[in-house]
């Protein structure tokens, strides 16, 4: 993450995939968690391709401690991709120090040679018996590796945003993605500590 984010608490985020994956819902939950749970400013701009289901889809979210005067995201600090088309469309807009997150079974980050994060979110959702919850797993992972919004606020937003009767399963999906993200961070930290020790 850039020094600017650390100083201002401002995040510009693009979630992208195809219609039917719940991309806009994930963006709505993210913005709601920031505004209601964390008492920050947030905006959401959504776009769809020519078809609602199967077409390109994105949710652009800005989170800030100050007023947001221009809601569209021009250069995301965080880019989460759940389709190859979404990656291809937005990767050039990612800031130089931005964080890329991909569904590792659906996206090949061709030409991107920096460190990034990947999670088999769709496969994990299928293992839970609910492929439609891949977006919530991805959201949990995003929160864990970026800390853009507090996890408690996001869980509350998930509960109030998903269809009635599905909150418990969606919270379980969020926790699955969140725990996976924490494990990835721990693994990287351990690897970095090992490298540092070897260099001494």
Q: How many domain regions?
A: 1
Helix content class: 40-55%
What's the CATH C level?
A: Alpha Beta
What is the straight-line distance between the termini? 27 Å
Strand order of the largest sheet: 2-3-1-4-5-6
Oligomeric state as shown: single chain
Main beta sheet: strand number and arrangement?
6 strands, mixed
Low-confidence stretches: 1-6
Shape: globular
State the CATH superfamily name: Pyruvate-ferredoxin oxidoreductase, PFOR, domain III
Strand content: 15-25%
Which H/E pattern describes the elements? HEHEEEHEEHHHH
Output the radius of gyration.
Answer: 16 Å
Query: What structural category characterises the helix and strand content?
Result: alpha/beta
The average pLDDT score comes to 91
**Proper CATH architecture:** 3-Layer(aba) Sandwich
Short key terms for the protein model shown above:
200 residues, alpha/beta, Pyruvate-ferredoxin Oxidoreductase, domain 3, 6-stranded mixed beta sheet, 7 helices, 46% helix, disordered N terminus
């Amino acid at each position: 993450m850039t020094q600017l984010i650390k100083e201002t608490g401002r995040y510009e985020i693009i979630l992208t995939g195809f219609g039917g994956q719940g991309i806009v819902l994930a963006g709505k939950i993210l913005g709601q968690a920031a505004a209601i749970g964390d008492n920050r400013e947030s905006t959401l701009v959504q776009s769809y391709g020519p078809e609602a289901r199967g077409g390109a889809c994105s949710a652009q979210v800005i989170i800030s401690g100050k007023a947001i005067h221009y809601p569209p995201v021009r250069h995301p600090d965080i880019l989460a991709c759940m389709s190859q088309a979404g990656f291809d469309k937005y990767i050039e807009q990612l800031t130089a120090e931005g964080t890329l997150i991909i569904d590792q079974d659906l996206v090949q980050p061709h030409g991107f040679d920096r460190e990034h994060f990947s999670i088999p979110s769709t496969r994990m959702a299928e293992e839970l018996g609910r492929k439609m919850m891949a977006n919530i797993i991805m959201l949990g992972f995003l929160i864990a590796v970026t800390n853009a919004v507090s996890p408690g606020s996001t869980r509350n937003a998930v509960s109030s945003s998903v269809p009635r009767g599905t909150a418990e399963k969606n919270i379980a999906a969020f926790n699955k993605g969140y725990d996976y993200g924490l494990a990835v961070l721990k693994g990287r930290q351990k690897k970095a500590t090992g490298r540092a020790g070897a260099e001494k």
